Amino acid sequence: MMRVFTSILIVLCVIASHAQTDSTKTGEIISGEVVIEKNKEILLPKADKIFLRSVPKSFLNQPLNLTFDVKEPSFEWPDYKSDVPFQSIEETYPKAQYQNYIKAGYGNFSSPLLEVGFFKMFGDFDTKARLFYESFKSGPVNGDNSGSSDGGIQLSSTYKSKTIAITPLLSFRSRTYRFYGNSDRVNTGFDSTRSPKVLLNNLAFSIGLKGGNEDISYSIKPHFSFINEDESDSPLFNEESTIGVNGMFNYGIDDSFTTGFDLEGLSSSYDGGISYSRSLINVNPWVKYKKDNLLIKAGFILSSGKVADDSKTGFYPDVRVDYDLSDKWLIYGILSGGQTWNGLQELLNENEFLDDSLAISHVEYTYKFGGGIKGSPIKNLLFDASLISSSTKGLPFFVPSINDSSRYNLAYDTEPVNIISLKSSVSYMPTATSMYGASLEINGYSVKTLDRPWNRPTYIFKAHTSHNIKERIIVSAYLSSMGGIRSPANVNFGYVNLSAFVDVGLGAKYLITERASAFIDVNNLLNNEYERYLGYPTRGLAFKIGGQYRF
């Protein structure tokens, strides 16, 4: 299978190199007007924005497009890690203004920050580069023995013609952190003053192609990634290489009917004490019907996965129904299933304190059934809520490693795990200079052979707000809370209910000139050294002060 994906990647690169050169350059405009589209999934902003002077367009005067993909709500938010500063991601400006920038800062825990952004047009290619570095010399446990660093570079380019768009992307990220786990409730079995240091490198490359016309649209994206995790006391810790391709094809038969298919294929090789390969192919043909207030999409998913010598192939339904209650409200229902990919990178995003010799499995959704409501009850406010019931196999839980309880390993229930998920989100932008957002997720797990749904939170709540004051001062704030987490403790073979926590952050930026600005960001304003994972308290109050210059 690895040879097949490699051949696809080579062919697509050849196609890209011979693409047509006829293009139309267009400028990027943001924050020019407030337009809420009912067919878009709510993505709560991660950071402050620079809002340009404009007059919001009235939502009530706009027609609503009620054709949108029905899926469980997903929310993009920063990870719960003590070494992640206030999420002040670089503002985006129109291309007519200054795209290049240098940003630098310094904070407590001896934490320097440097970020450089570069934008340039090379002929028909819109090219961007970003370089970043941040480190914390000390942490919450034993000073330097819980420090960390994070740095990397990202290069991307976009070529557009009348018939095709090509977007290659290359990124490299390198992180260091330590296994500083230390708690009286856990028998760690090691000297925390010599917390092993981990170097985590991640290289990724992809090239996306999109094209089509009024009746046909298609996209294909081959990608490759390599992740390597080395420990200071061990020559090999965790390593995984993955190659894959994602694609889709849509054909509009007439005003009511559309047909198409989605494709996903991945293959990986894992090495870390144990070695094995994995692969997954999902093919999803479908037909969609839209008439008046009703939309029906029906198809199936052919899912074939393999982990080492174990393989699983199955057919799963893929049906959704939308119905417009009014011009402001829509209800929807879904029935689906299939296997989803779970790799080393995805697991480390959830829990970076993993041991080696990981038995990574695909997650199979035997069924996923439920529905929700989506709408805009008032101008410039978008609301979404859903209730989904699913049955899974291969869902990973995190438990202390037998060899060293300061590290975590994967545990699986040998029986299906049933999940009830209630998710809701709201986004509100009353003016062109203010926004509010919040999301709530409540999950109930029914485990059978495991004692508890180890280290899976019962609820996650997040909120964010940002305001531009007189076009000079940008003030942002976030709040995140998580609770209902239970973790095994190797003391008397019991378990611990981790305390629910609330993390609050504030940020402010002052625009000195159109090119220069100063900022201050504060994380964990309540100074709570809470634990997301047992034995790993986060840093207390952390702040960073710095400046930014655009050119």
Q: Describe it for me?
A:
The protein is mainly beta. The chain is 4% helix and 56% strand. It has helices at residues 2-17, 344-350; strands spanning 101-107, 111-122, 125-136, 148-160, 164-178, 197-212, 216-231, 234-252, 257-271, 275-291, 294-307, 310-324, 329-340, 363-375, 381-393, 397-400, 408-411, 417-431, 434-446, 459-469, 473-483, 486-489, 494-497, 501-511, 516-523, 531-533, 536-537, 542-550. A hairpin with a 5-residue loop joins strand 14 and strand 15 (381-393).
Structural class: mainly beta
Q: For the residues shown, what is the average pLDDT?
A: 82
The end-to-end distance, rounded to whole angstroms, is: 47 Å
- Per DSSP, what share of the residues sits in E-state strands of 2 or more residues? over 45%
Q: What's the SSE pattern? A: HEEEEEEEEEEEEEHEEEEEEEEEEEEEEE
Element layout with pairings:
Layout (H helix, E strand, L loop, with lengths): L1 H16 L83 E7 L3 E12 L2 E12 L11 E13 L3 E15 L18 E16 L3 E16 L2 E19 L4 E15 L3 E17 L2 E14 L2 E15 L4 E12 L3 H7 L12 E13 L5 E13 L3 E4 L7 E4 L5 E15 L2 E13 L12 E11 L3 E11 L2 E4 L4 E4 L3 E11 L4 E8 L7 E3 L2 E2 L4 E9 L1
Antiparallel strand pairs: 1-2, 1-28, 2-3, 3-4, 4-5, 5-6, 6-7, 7-8, 8-9, 9-10, 10-11, 11-12, 12-13, 13-14, 14-15, 15-18, 16-17, 18-19, 19-20, 20-21, 21-24, 22-23, 24-25, 25-28, 26-27
Task: Considering the chains and any ligands shown, give keywords for the structure.
2 helices, mainly beta, 28 strands, disordered N terminus, 551 residues, single chain
